[in-house]
């Protein structure tokens, strides 16, 4: 481990297990940058070790300098005693009483007076030195980031280095001295330090953390401010103070701590969490968001906790048919029916750390408890994750979702629901104690020996309109599990490998839109033609740059016209698309029978899919036309249209006509 000597400013290599040192936690300067290892070495070349520099004891603590001499005079200059009584010396003393040293023996100026030295490095060393520490570690200059091997080793060792430090100084450059740090909206609460990815492990790993204001004044310690820090970060006080093992906290909860934090590099979202999960893995800068996928895979290899699949939004109890009594033990129970099912473009592993923002409430249920609740035999094999060319193979109990489809739902939804299941996870939410969580999944290739599990979400409606929208997780009460126990089966599923992503695609969801172009994919075009529709997509043009019109005509029957209009706000970072749907009947007489409108709103970074919405209305005595519309993000300013038109005589569920953003990033 490379440390800074707080007396000389020079680098030294020490074994952290046998050295007492302080360590600095800080946020990097976004304007002027931080002084790097290479830059500090260049400054150090101008200096040599000072003669008679202070000794250190066996632990590396600073031993006081011998009094009476100032060792910071220019080369070949004078060393002047601090008192009138100078010590006897073999070197001559001039008429002014000053001791003269030859140029070859006179020390160089102190590095601490060098104007090119970073003030942060100077002040950190001075603060550590004043508190008795001979050595300090500062990430910005103690790691040679030009060496990929050294950088990878440091990242994989960093949690241990912070844990073994005698003290961690958390320098909060944006917190002034003298304010009430507990007050709502205080600078301490809003400090950038609490929003950065790397500072999470720097807060948790050390036993002692001392918070410092912008002028290096002590604010307090992790111990004295533990309740305030818990409130700011959402991290249990017992974890902060090492009263509770980090490994006893669910994977979802640990990921939730980092879900609102940011890093400069996408890869660091994953790399900054290696120590939180006691994992070592190679760092591959350039892999982008794939690093988070690799982190999840490494967690699977060593942590049996299934809360890693408990990402996204959690719903209330699902209601079956006939209705079940509600579980009143959870306070204000609400039941909901599934009205539609929408796949996500991802496997069971989360595509993004932000999906775990609600994971702080997830806790693990012991395996014995799971076996008892599901009435599985004690000899039931534990879940294993086997990595194969087809993906990651696993066994998990599932419950069919068709049991919870809303009465009166469209027939095609009931048919499609036969591919959908709730994967029963070994965890529960604190909001629903005693209820296991079910992950909404779509299983492809039913009946095949290779069945891939794809994440999805269920659109639900509660009887009292208290729960609306799409949900990734649902709570399964003991009563629900008991009623549908006969439908529960253990399936062997595969978590597919991630699809290929080109480098240029990684950041397009963060780019502002300009003028929107809507594209009807060839597959959708051919599907509509196969249903007997003539397809015509027009726009935009110079007179109407914000409009598209899709016309679907079935000869001698009806015409569906969908007029799209988009609006861009906030310099292209907010998009609203409205679709007006009009059906005109041409037989037996021409008449417009219904007109409806739906809309979508999204903001940067753009969601992969905007919710698929259905509108339908029956023509008395004839048929029902159902139009299902969706939008898929294709590229900056470009969206693929998802269009399906069906005619039947079945009673239908009518959507609200408003689609919210579905976060499938």
From TrEMBL:
> Domain named DUF8212: which ranges?
290-499
> Which residue range or ranges hold the Heterokaryon incompatibility domain?
116-173
Record's InterPro entries?
DUF8212, HET
Q: Which Pfam families match?
A: DUF8212, HET
PANTHER family reported for this sequence: HET DOMAIN-CONTAINING PROTEIN
Q: Report the protein name in the record.
A: Uncharacterized protein
Q: Which organism is it from?
A: Dichomitus squalens
